[in-house]
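Listing S7. Sequence submitted for prediction.
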Amino acid sequence: MNAMASPVVFSRDGSIGTVSMQGRHGNALNRDLLQGLGEAFSRAADDPRVRGVLFTSTGKLFSPGLDLQELLALERPAMNDFMALFANVLLDLYSFPKPVVAALSGHAVAGGCVLALTADLRVLLRGAWIGLNEVKVGVPLPYGVAQLLRETVHPPALTKVALLGLNFSDEEAVAAGLVHAVQDEGRLQPYCREQLDRFCSRGSVALTHTKSYLRQAAVERIRAHDHAHRDEFLDCWFLPETRRRIEEIVASLKKRNR
């Protein structure tokens, strides 16, 4: 993929790397964006000067989730390949060895919420929404996403987050465990940099090992079982009623963007 055309930009300022999404459709998740994320985080992992990563985006949204406008046209084999890529990138981000702070500068819903869940610290812009709406569309959470949710969201909130597909903002998002803090627009980026500086002041090798220990069990479960459950997602994705819902969403998005 041409770096000039990448929907994800990696940069470094001292010991802090920044991974910024600037893709089409408000950073909706398509193949190019996922590949761009994989490449950017790989660069950050391989650069010994980078001790922590700020994960953010440009535009009004952090990410609205899957790029339905592109994915609707895929047949089952191609959609299976896309979901495999999504699972692999998710694992790469979740097992990333250095600290990651996500600056959620806009709505982070569905797959956008999933990306945020891979970070060590999540900070939401006041007034923005975060949540998982898959069941409302008619598809189950992918197996790997369900595992990340179990590791991050407070158990009493799982019903509202996973089964009812509600969105949360401000202090309600903190209470659910979807984010760690909420900040006003002018304080979001500075606050996230302050938190990264705190992470970077710790012993990097000790932090890496400890992060691995905390996440190892979930990573192993996802690697062992995600593929076996993918057909369950695809079966629901291609149900006629689910396709109708997705078509309605896509038509609404196209009308809004005229």
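Caption to Listing S7: primary sequence and predicted structure tokens for the chain studied. The mean pLDDT is 93. The radius of gyration is 17 Å.
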